[in-house]
Prior knowledge:
The complex is a heterodimer.
Chain A: H1 2-8, E1 12-23, E2 26-37, E3 41-45, H2 52-60, E4 67-72, E5 75-76, E6 87-90, H3 102-112, H4 117-130, H5 146-158, E7 164-168, H6 176-193, E8 196-201, H7 204-210, E9 213-218, E10 221-226, H8 228-233, H9 238-244, E11 248-256, E12 259-262, E13 265-268, E14 278-284, E15 290-292, E16 299-308, E17 313-319, E18 322-328, E19 337-341, E20 348-351
Parallel strand pairs in A: 3-8, 3-9, 6-7, 7-8
Antiparallel strand pairs in A: 1-2, 1-4, 4-5, 9-10, 11-12, 11-14, 12-13, 14-20, 15-19, 16-17, 16-19, 17-18
Helix pairs in contact in A: 3-4, 3-5, 4-5
Chain B: H1 2-9, H2 11-32, H3 43-46, H4 51-84, H5 90-98, H6 105-116, H7 121-128, H8 140-164, H9 168-176, H10 181-210, H11 213-219, H12 226-236, H13 240-263
Amino acid sequence: MSEMGQKKMSKHLIDFIDISKSFEQTPVLDEFNLYIRENEFLTLLGPSGCGKTTTLRMLGGFETPDSGQIFFDGKDITYLPANERKLNTVFQKYSLFPHMSIAENIAFGLKISRKSKSYIDDKIKYALKLVNLDGYEKRSVHSLSGGQQQRIAIARAIVNEPKVLLLDEPLGALDLKLRQNMQYELIRLKEELGITFVYVTHDQEEALTMSDTIVVMNQGYIQQIGTPEDIYNEPENAFVADFIGHSNIIDGIMITDRLVEILGVKMPCVDEGFGENTPVDVVIRPEDVELVEPADGYMEGDVTSLIFKGVHYELDVQANGYEWLVHTTKYVPVGTHVGIKVIPFNIQIMHKPESSDERAVEIDE
Amino acid sequence: MSKLKQQFLAGPYLLWIVGFILLPVLMILYYAFTNADGIFTLEYIFAIGSETNRKAIGLSLQLGIICTIICLLLSYPLAMILSRIQFKNQGFVVFIFMLPMWMNFMLRILAWKLLLSKNGVINTLLEGIGMPEISIINTPVAVVLGMVYDFLPFMLLPIYNSMTRIRKDWIEAAQDLGANNVTIFFKIILPLTVSGIISGIVMVFVPSLTSFAISQVLGGGQVLLIGNVIEQDFMQGMQWNAGSGLSFVLMIFVIASMALVNLFDKEEPVK
């Protein structure tokens, strides 16, 4: 999949160059650089206040950067007003015009570009079909549910045939079941339309499900750019690891190549090139922790809590002064004395964050 | 039981309606359609056709419409600015604009008389800097000025309210779909404030059509509105039947104009 995708999306469509932006002296973005390729589904992922929405709003034309430039298809659009940009936005709160029917909402952009009546009618039909709401032309906005309103908002944007569709947490206000359905719908839409999607969310699952590329952001800095697999399997720092899924993140010392020491125990791993006796962050995913007989593990501990999660149990294991988060399909009652083991491949070694980015990779719990 | 109790609770309100609304209206109807001897007549209804009365209601309509238009033209941009600009304390700024409304309106009108009169404050100031005097006191211009000053908040407030209910993301969505500022105004802002404009028009036009105190003070007896004629009938001539007849006709005018205005208010209420 990624090889095919790679070929289709070779060209840079959007470039952010050295963008900085502050709101009332609070820096939101600092020397921000990012490119977005044609036909890519790119997700800006991060906690609130990380700058992801500001980035999207700059692309949409609702904010201007304090410094830096934004290029779209080779042209500088940094100061181009929103109504002259060839991209459309799906807003978080749907933002349908309440005094217009569904058809009038969808036709809004087409009427402004003075399309013929028959063209507009065809487009409305096509768009409603695309979002599975055929026959809703005459309905009023108030008579629609949140999910339906959001689909109309998408229809209203895509009838204008934008090269890029911007989506600002469009599923944020929907309930879980609807959100999951809409995720599949969005993926299908993206395939059918063959355009670039730039998506903003704080929901890591949403990002992993839909994206070709994920940009993890925190406090105005990009933490990591990569495919969902890269981000999940090879987080570059403790922030990404923690944000993408609850992980065990433990201070460690890289003794030498392929050997790390955590919680007073030396463990073999597969990473090299960190030097000798270097302080590092060690990330071990909860599903990668094996519970074995006390004598067979790297360290011994006691199960302190157990929650049934459906597919698996979620356990806390107190061992060597650290509370390990463990996912297992085995039932291990509270109080059981266990051994903890991790195979070398599943131990992720990461550099400790460095000076300028230090603030950015702090983990707020 | 609870239903009975609920009905009982509505009692005082019912009393109020009957005593202060229904009864007076019925009394006006009675006086309007009878003469001094209590015999049915349409004389006082048709009295509107007399030259004085025709002129008075014509002038009332004319000044009422002018006052309403001026209030609308002043309030709309003001409401737009008030709702759009991000003041630190927006409520306080609106409060400043509403402040005069809380003073007795007679006081405000008397203040204008002091300002505008021949040897009043404005003319003294103008004289002081060698400018020609203005003499609009006792003319329809002064009456309209007083009406606009008095009724402006009734136009401003409903328009401002409807303006603040326009969400910023609607404007952004319109921009996003290619609308320039002119399109945004005519397709989004204006349609969404129609209900506020309608309320404003009703709340300004009706009191200005029926006003008599303003024309009395600032018109100095030179500007005879239908309200003044009615007032004279009741207070000076003690002609309750004549006054009621004209009141009834004026009521018809008010109801008709409100119905006319409501014809244009077909918009669904904005949530």
